[in-house]
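Hello,

Following up on my earlier ticket. Below are the four sequence lines again, exactly as submitted.
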Amino acid sequence: MPGTTERDLIVGVIQLANLLTRRLAPIFEKSKITPQQWAVLSVLGESEGALSLAGLARKLLVSKQNMTGMVARLEQLGLAEREADPADLRSSKVQLSRRGRALVDKLRPSYDEWVRTLGKDVSQRDMQSLTRTVDRLISELEA
Amino acid sequence: MPGTTERDLIVGVIQLANLLTRRLAPIFEKSKITPQQWAVLSVLGESEGALSLAGLARKLLVSKQNMTGMVARLEQLGLAEREADPADLRSSKVQLSRRGRALVDKLRPSYDEWVRTLGKDVSQRDMQSLTRTVDRLISELEA
DNA sequence: CATGTGAGGTCAATATATTGACTATTCGGG
DNA sequence: CCCGAATAGTCAATATATTGACCTCACATG
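Thanks for your patience. The regenerated structure is below:
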């Protein structure tokens, strides 16, 4: 088959992740946040009460060191707040600031709409299959 | 459904990409290269003749600025070589060095084996569906 | 053949992400 | 009760990735 550039699944997933980030960025650009920052804010918005930094890192499957920086930047932007955890002197609790909450509420509809539009060239069945398989592979690789 | 933490497809794909990179790293660690460097070397290994930096960037769907750095590091490692393109004074051609070629040949089997083992908890049908849908979404987002 | 557009490449700034190394605190078992 | 192991967090180094700004060269159109 001449001309068929076999795209490796691994390379494909990494490229797709980069492309998603790139295409998503304009939605958040006016609010001066990045898609990854959105992911953190979104988790914070859905969590009852505050989360520890390590808890956030586990939920988003990134290293705690990475989360240290992410939260520091969100704090810098005035979107998240940290306070000491009285029950554990090592730990701190992170939560949305009032501005952070307002931003999440404001951006949520645009984000959801973008995600809905995403698979427009792909059948709903294939999109559901994709989500399921991605979750399975994540579980496999986490173990 | 209490306890069901809906994982967003976008977030899932990004997490999967990060996990794949993390789990793949040990294969390349002894050779002092990263999974992304492997991707570049692999493309160079399969291409007839040399590729321009911009051509490499297009093939791997990253910015030319990123590719500048990637190739510089591969050159630093003695795995790739650049030479001026006589047909275009702006451009240069990148190709594997002898050491680079040897490294690709050496690592190829381990990489292929790792990829084959990847979907062991997932049916072959779902893996093929995944590959197809990832490619479709990439096309959609590239447009 | 001159000029403007666009393509190839680099550099700088910044965000994301990893690991390694370290401190401080918690917690379980002897 | 105390001590070693595990957990929470930080800092530093490095790779990946983006955009913006800029230079050089190619090429088409007038």
